[in-house]
Model the fold of this input.
Amino acid sequence: MSANNGEKDRLLDSLPAHIILVDKRGSIRAANKKTEKLLEQQYPGRSMLLITDIFPELKKEEVMTGWKDARVLKMNGIDFVVITEANPLQQYEDSILLLFFELSDLASVNRELAITKKELEEIIDTSYDEILVADHDGYVLRVSAGACRRLYGEEPENIIGRNVKELEKEGYYRPSIFDQVKTEKRRVTSIQTNKMGHKTIVTANPLLDENNNVIRVISNSRDINEFINLGEKLGENEKQARQFYQKLIRIKQDAKVTEDFVAESPNMQSIIETARKVAQFDSTVLLLGESGVGKDLVAKMIHGLSSRSAGPFQKINCGAIPDSLLESELFGYAPGAFTGALREGKRGLIEEAQGGTLYLDEIGEMPYFLQVKLLQVIEEKVVNRVGSSRPMQIDIRIIAATHKNLQAMAAEKKFREDLYYRLNVVSLHLPPLRERPEDLQTLCNLFIKRFNQTFSAGKGIATDCMKAFMRYTWPGNVRELENLIERFLVMGEEDLMQVKHLPGHMQEVDTPLKEPPAVMSNPAYKGFSAGIFENDNGYCSDCRVYAKSPENNPCPPRAEKPASLQEAVEKAEIEAILEAVRKHGKINKAARALGISQSTLTRRLNRYGITHDYAKVNLDKR
Done:
């Protein structure tokens, strides 16, 4: 056998099977290494072997011709599966190639194939989409069980073995695309109607042999109703997402619009609620109240919370413009309306407010002759420019404000009664600052924080100054308070605003506090100082607030009288807030722990003069 080593092809050595090349006399001409090793084990010491020595069952004529099908032959009692091929290679003419495997090895392979076949069958049966396999003549070989029941209402046994054309005639699906796939030998996708009346989308692929003949057609079908349902669910989810997004935007807008509006007192909270409601409608609003109470803020808030918030907000002070100019400013004028006018004319503020809100401040100062034209604008939604007879349609909302008694003016014929009733659809009366002491401290916090940020300062208000604020009647209302605090932050050289920094008429006020806020009436918090504001670095262990330094915050002795029910409730609320902020660190988490909104907790912190840094101090220090 060693004489034949030079004739073996390297290809034979690379094959995992046993390979023997024999001539027609049965002599072995070549063998691969795997076979040589086997023969050395089975026939040790024998160098010349015939194929009939190896497989005694073979007959001479079989060695001459070979055979087509696999045969099981024994070699020393071991079963081998043997396959032959005559004249396999050009250099080995008149030879026969024997390829053989040990039967036990094939059994292992067969088990693996069986396992693989079972897995493939389970994959097909459990597929949500229908997988159907047909042979080259169109007879169904496999179909996924679950999909078969769902799409056709049939067990797979009733489909397998039947021809696809027969199934089409019986209405299981139509039209069939089998012939198109077989003819064109390419993937085809189509829409079918199945036995259950549902639309399905089917994709069929051809499986080709080495001669490019179609031997299998594999199709995949899915119920389009599933896509429709998914589309509807997706559409519903998108709709809900848009609604949530719009709601979130509204909440953010509401928070932004109302963030500078202080409403701790019940009457101001009621006004905000009314303003929120009326903002959703285009009704005319009349704002009443003394100068400086915040009518401009309420007007902007109503506009900001309305559907017109994206439109313009045009304000005009009817008392600040001379009567001769007010008409042209408000209504505009046509080209050449009067000497000195612009050649192209001018749009008035009413036209500029198109799609938005027109805010008429100090409406009580409007000249009587212009009130007729304003009434026409409100009633007919049209405006005539000065010098023009052509009316123009407008789409605006009107908010008016005044500190005067329009009803009394109407009775005295100083204001048109019909216009008064047109403006007074919804009226909001803003109380003066002296009637809302609960808001005073929060307003101080707001202005101090705002101006500290603006001027990069770190100032605050002392206790005696705050008490003076509480006794003062504030004829200029919120505007007066804001200007007073700004003047101190700009001009004051000390860190704390004290009584000595106030105007003389405020220092002389010596009336008792009418309705002090809770933080001032609570005995545990008499040491009210700059600690209610930002940038504090001092701490008073007695009154438990921060101050710039201990000497700047001399705490008066605690009241000996028993606390009232209101004081006890407020103290308990303060304790709960302190504990929550200290424990959770962040305002939003503390609010969730307390079961209130973040804005409500912020208002409570401002009301009681509690800073975030103070609340985080260890409670043992109190």
